[in-house]
Design goal:
5-stranded mixed β-sheet, 8 helices
């Protein structure tokens, strides 16, 4: 996907998130994060948007953490969220293509990394807000959802902090049924997971190898299930279902 597509998705989903948060109210429970209320969700994403905007506009080279949120009344939170989201969208639009900035993992460019990461961060939390409201979920394009699966598998769970580990080596295959080439093999062990895209040069040989468990479904449903935002009973699962339980229990972000 192009950087402009990620920024446009960020723009749209950020607005939908704020709308749902405003309608649901600060006390609405977040189904995927039982310890959170809507005010916690809004505070989290507002902090993250401002942090990312700062990295992009300042070209920050060193790792940092989001600043604490200001002490705001409940009726000020959504406006604060909208303001930070707006600044992030503007920052990404205005950033030079050769932006130099810190990233969590290798990417085609720092600008591509931050546009992609913030688009998926915002989309997943937009789902949280709409679920808290009890509203129908706004559909995600299959290409964006498949990209989000790739980011989750090859980015987030490539980090040392991933708790997705097994004592005995196992393999998990993930496939989006409505997205050509959207297939991954996840090699599990006592180390951080190793992901192989089957669309990569070594993909066809990798895909021919048997997996201990295979999970298949439409890209959007698979994306949200892997983020633990939708139940897994809509997925087609073959093989050892203990690996899906492992995911649900240890792959939370």
């Amino acid at each position: 996907m192009e950087i402009t597509e990620f920024v446009e998705t960020l723009r749209l989903d950020g607005g939908l998130l704020a709308d749902a948060a405003e309608e649901a109210g600060p006390e609405a429970a977040i189904p995927a994060c039982p310890e959170w209320r809507m005010r916690d969700l809004v505070t989290h994403i507002g902090r993250v948007h401002r942090w990312a905007a700062g990295i992009v506009t300042q070209g920050a080279q060193q790792p940092s953490r989001p600043a604490e949120a200001p002490d705001l009344a409940d009726d000020e939170l959504v406006a604060w969220l909208r303001e930070g989201h707006h600044h992030l969208v503007l920052a990404l639009h205005a950033a030079p293509r050769d932006l130099a900035a810190w990233t969590f993992w290798p990417a085609p460019s720092p600008l591509a990394f931050w546009a992609r990461r913030q688009a998926h961060e915002t989309s997943v939390h937009r789902v949280d807000a709409q679920q808290a409201l009890g509203a129908a979920l706004t559909p995600l394009p299959s290409a964006f959802a498949a990209d989000g699966i790739d980011e989750l598998l090859t980015g987030i769970h490539s980090l040392d902090r991933s708790a997705l580990r097994t004592d005995v080596p196992r393999t998990l295959r993930v496939r989006a049924t409505d997205s050509p080439g959207a297939k991954w093999t996840v090699h599990l062990s006592d180390a951080p997971p190793r992901m192989v895209r089957t669309s990569a040069p070594d993909g066809p040989g990798e895909a021919a190898k048997p997996a201990d468990c295979t999970i298949e479904g439409p890209a959007e449903e698979l994306y949200l299930a892997l983020w633990n935002r939708l139940p897994w009973d809509t997925m087609t699962i073959t093989g050892d279902e203990a690996l899906t339980r492992l995911w649900r229990e240890h792959a939370g972000i």
